[in-house]
Write a structure and sequence with these properties.
single chain; about 400 residues; two-stranded antiparallel ribbon; two-stranded antiparallel sheet; 4 strands; globular
């Protein structure tokens, strides 16, 4: 077991506070950076060695001599409390948008991708919004948020698996700035193994998100775990003979997960580089106590993360369509009719593998068949931009009033 530094929730940048002689907490080192969570299929936080700046307290401690410790909750300055409040709120708004508010877009996107019957490809946000309204009207709001709990379970399984593997193997979970090809290869191998472990649970989660609410019973919270274990062990609900074995799904699943991670990591680093180069004032200095500067400091990273996820999703959308069709084949899943917004359709595909699926889509549905449901991606990221901008305006006004 190789030595590792302790990890935990960093509160968007409050780690490694050191106590100086005399009972005072030292200012965090501005050169220290914190990495973001690892990648899983469909995840949004997929950046190796990503950087979150550490901000120093805006004003010195008072004469009381009390120790200001971000972990122990000691008496802190107004500037640091406001900074922590802003970072937590903005991060929470971003996570809420990605995982909760955008879930209806993910549901419709996946249903369109696996619906080879569909005549309407829903390439624009206008048709997607219309079909969302129709489904909500006929089945209720619950139909648009189905399977949300299982997506969190898959993320938890992937995060746990990556942590355990990296702890008991030499595969690095993080990449230092003095990286070498061997370290990169080991890191990507860790990501690939994580995708393999999460794969059966990802299949179960996919079924929950596309299965029509009209014909399914009330699913339990742990059904995703039960179905995933059954898929891996080969028991449980009987499936069709067309069900592809997990071995046949391993290559496309790992390919999609690793490529998504590489693309999003590269784009995020590139965007952060240009943002810092073009607007260095958005990265405040150590002695900066401006509330607006502290608030603006969080947004370059959020913008970079947004751009990284968008680029990866757009570039890999055709591969994701193929991946979802392979995972859903033979599971006897019934989906909603995405042409009408009511009625249901069975999934009866007979793809022999990844290559046959690609050729069949190209031959029967055309090149645009790989982009079915793409309008949901536009809605999803437009919604994300709107929420981030609204959050920034609200926090700017609120924090300015607090600071005064």
């Amino acid at each position: 077991m190789h030595p590792r530094r302790p990890e935990g929730f960093d509160g968007l940048g409050y780690r490694n506070a050191r106590e100086e002689p005399g009972g005072f907490a030292a200012k965090p080192d501005l050169g220290h950076w914190v990495t973001t969570p690892p990648d899983i299929p469909g995840s949004r936080n997929l950046h190796w060695g990503e950087k979150t700046p550490q901000f120093a307290a805006g004003t010195p401690l008072g004469a009381s001599g009390l120790n200001e410790d971000p972990y122990l909750g000691g008496v802190g300055t107004n500037s640091e409390q406001i900074n922590r409040f802003a970072g937590f709120g903005i991060g929470l708004a971003s996570l809420f948008t990605e995982n909760v508010l955008a879930h209806p877009c993910i549901v419709l996107r996946r249903q369109c991708q696996v619906n080879y019957h569909a005549k309407n490809y829903h390439l624009t946000p206008f048709t997607i919004i219309n079909i969302m309204y129709s489904i909500n009207k006929t089945q209720g709001p619950r139909a648009l948020w189905k399977g949300m709990g299982s997506t969190f379970i898959v993320q938890g399984i992937a995060l746990g698996a990556e942590g355990i593997i990296s702890e008991f193997t030499p595969l690095p979970r993080e990449i230092s700035y003095k990286w070498n090809p061997r370290q990169i290869g080991g890191h990507l191998t860790l990501k690939a193994l994580t995708c393999v472990i999460a794969m059966p649970f990802y299949s179960a989660s996919l079924i929950e998100t596309v299965q029509s609410e009209i014909i399914r019973d009330n699913p339990g919270i742990l059904d995703c775990l039960k179905e995933g274990i059954g898929r891996a062990m080969g028991f449980g609900i009987p499936h069709s003979k067309r069900l592809l074995p997990l071995l046949a799904l391993t290559f496309p699943t790992v390919l999609h997960g690793v490529l998504h991670y590489i693309i999003s990591s590269a784009v995020q680093k590139l965007v952060l580089f240009f943002l810092k180069k073009g607007n260095p004032s958005s990265f405040p200095a150590e002695n900066s106590n401006s509330v607006q500067n502290m608030l603006d400091a969080y947004f370059p990273e959020l913008i970079a993360s947004f751009a990284a996820s968008l680029c990866a999703d757009v570039m890999l959308y055709p591969l994701e369509t193929v991946l979802h069709r392979l995972h859903i084949q033979g599971t006897r899943t019934i989906i909603d009719n995405t042409d009408l917004g009511y009625e249901v359709l069975p999934i009866n595909t007979q793809y022999e593998g990844m290559r046959d699926c690609i050729n069949s889509i190209k031959r029967e549905e055309g090149m645009l068949g790989f982009y079915k449901g793409f309008g949901a991606v536009i809605v999803q990221y437009t919604l994300h931009v709107a929420v981030l901008q609204l959050t920034k305006v609200i926090y700017s006004t609120l924090l300015q009033n607090i600071s005064q």
